[in-house]
Design goal:
It is a single chain. By secondary structure, this protein is an alpha/beta fold. The chain has two domains: 160 residues, Response regulator (Rossmann fold, 3-Layer(aba) Sandwich); 30 residues, no CATH class. Helix content is 51%, strand content 17%. A seven-stranded mixed sheet has the order 2-1-3-4-5-6-7, with helices on both faces. Helix 1 packs parallel to helix 2. The radius of gyration is 18 Å and the shape is globular.
């Protein structure tokens, strides 16, 4: 399979995770009537992610809004739009910009009392509500295995494309309480980590 096929599989995985994030967020905020995605429009799969989430949101009867941020300067305006639109919950799309500025994004979500779901546990440790995404420790372990195989003489082109198989769900109970949310027992039971 060529590079195009590999990219498509990774994009599909990213989109599927976005839909799963939306479902988890809806379980935490069952009263939500509208939802938004904060995305970096410069990311190659930004439109695909937003399209998948829009379909999922519409199937749940939710209004859906797309908020764009391609630099740190855009964050305040995006959160002002959240408030103006009366958005009930926010999905923060995966992006290196957002990961690098996670403290700022989490602080804005707190300041505006917006329940948000993120990709990595580091957002939750920083005070975010919930995260669901690939386990970085598992991805690093897989990368180490592949590096070991290459060092033993295998050709990189002959190695299989590996997709993540372990995903982490992390919930911050203190943030949930501050937002007036009750974490359903079913969600709490499947959490890999609970931050208190």
């Amino acid at each position: 399979m060529g590079d195009r096929g590999k990219r498509n599989r990774l994009t599909e995985l990213s989109s599927e995770l976005g839909v799963k994030r939306l479902g988890l967020l809806r379980e935490l905020v069952p009263s939500a009537t509208s939802i938004a995605i904060l995305r970096n429009p410069r990311r190659p799969d930004a439109d695909i992610q937003a399209g998948q989430l829009q379909q999922a949101a519409q199937s749940l009867g939710l209004q859906f809004h797309i908020l764009n941020a391609s630099s740190e300067r855009d964050f305040d305006a995006a959160f002002q739009t959240v408030v103006q639109l009366g958005v009930s919950a926010l999905v923060v799309a995966p992006d290196a910009l957002f990961s690098d500025r996670r403290d700022q994004i989490v602080a804005l979500a707190k300041r505006h009392s917006v329940p948000a779901i993120y990709e990595f546990r580091e957002f939750v440790v920083a005070g975010g509500l919930i995260s669901y995404g690939v386990s970085l420790s598992d991805v690093r372990r897989q990368a180490g295995i592949l590096a070991g195989r290459i060092l033993k003489g295998e050709k990189p082109a002959d190695l299989p494309v590996m997709q993540p198989t372990k995903f982490d769900l992390v919930i911050n109970l203190k943030t949930a309480k501050a937002l007036g949310l009750t974490v359903p027992p079913g969600v709490l039971a499947i959490a890999d980590e609970v931050v208190e």
